[in-house]
Amino acid sequence: MTTQDLARRPSLRSQRLNQITHSPHTRLDALVKAHAPFETLTNFAPFVVAQYLFQSELVAMYNDAELITIVPDLPARCRAEQAKADLADLETDVPAAIAGAVKNPTKAEALGWIFVSEGSKLGAAFLIKRAVGLGLSDTFGARHLGEPAGGRAEGWKSFIKTLDGLELSAEEEADIEKGAIDAFNRFTVLLEQAYATAPKAELA
Ligand code: HEM
């Protein structure tokens, strides 16, 4: 890293994470949109499959005893159950796990993954509005995009405040960034797989 790069590194950890995930986020956003998930329910279902798989892989992290001491409401933040219920609403089978899930992340890596999962709730505020056009809502088919209890902005702010307040070693700092990048890469793989294996719409 050059001195110039260091000078451009924001002082808040959450801002550094935003900075390093900006490009992966832009790419993922474009990839999601390329599949036009809000055009039809057939297009939407694989998006939910990817969300379900991603959330399922995060269940252990959201329920990690040590992480709960840092973020007490962590288990309630996980959306694996909502995504599973969405699949049922959409009459879509619960998918089999896809090889390559994160294994034994360090605590700091896990926080990087959780940062991405929690951050994705911000984009979800926009996505759920589009899902309404498909007849879906936070109680049917698009539960995992719904407003979290206590509020979307509030949930994010409290998470970020905790994250920014943690004292981490240089190694842990690198791990949290690695976790965030790995999470974006993994969501990309899951999304691509979900669309590649989805039943295609019948041709008229
Ligand atoms: C798996 C991870 C993620 C996915 C799949 C995802 C997906 C998306 C998509 C598709 C949009 C576009 C919504 C629209 O224009 O209709 C969006 C917007 C947004 N996302 Fe994400 N996102 C993820 C992670 C994050 C993270 C980590 C953050 C924050 C740190 C974040 C913050 C936002 C914000 C603020 C918006 C709204 C407007 C914008 O800046 O583009 N997202 N996201």
Describe the overall structure.
- With 204 residues, the protein is mainly α.
- It has one domain (35-197): Up-down Bundle (Heme Oxygenase, Chain A), CATH 1.20.910.
- Helices cover 67% and strands 0% of the residues.
- The chain contains 10 helices and no strands.
- It has helices at 3-8, 13-20, 22-34, 41-62, 65-70, 74-77, 80-89, 107-132, 152-165, 170-197.
- Helix 3 (22-34) packs parallel to helix 10 (170-197), helix 4 (41-62) runs antiparallel to helix 7 and helix 4 (41-62) packs antiparallel against helix 10.
- The model has no long low-confidence stretch (mean pLDDT 95).
- Bound molecules: protoporphyrin IX containing FE.
- Residues 18, 21, 25, 28-29, 32, 116, 119-120, 122-123, 126-127, 187 line the site of protoporphyrin IX containing FE.
- Protoporphyrin IX containing FE binds at residues 18, 21, 25, 28-29, 32, 116, 119-120, 122-123, 126-127, 187.
By secondary-structure content and strand pairing, the structural class works out as: mainly alpha
Average pLDDT confidence is: 95
Number of strands: 0
Ligands bound here? protoporphyrin IX containing FE
Distance between the termini: 55 Å
| Low-pLDDT residue spans | none
According to CATH, the fold-level topology is: Heme Oxygenase, Chain A
Major sheet size, sense and barrel closure: none
CATH hierarchy, class = Mainly Alpha
Let me know the CATH homologous superfamily: Heme oxygenase-like
Measured by DSSP, the beta-strand proportion falls in under 5%
Question: CATH architecture, please?
Answer: Up-down Bundle
Q: How many structural domains can be distinguished in the coordinates?
A: 1
Radius of gyration over alpha carbons?
17 Å
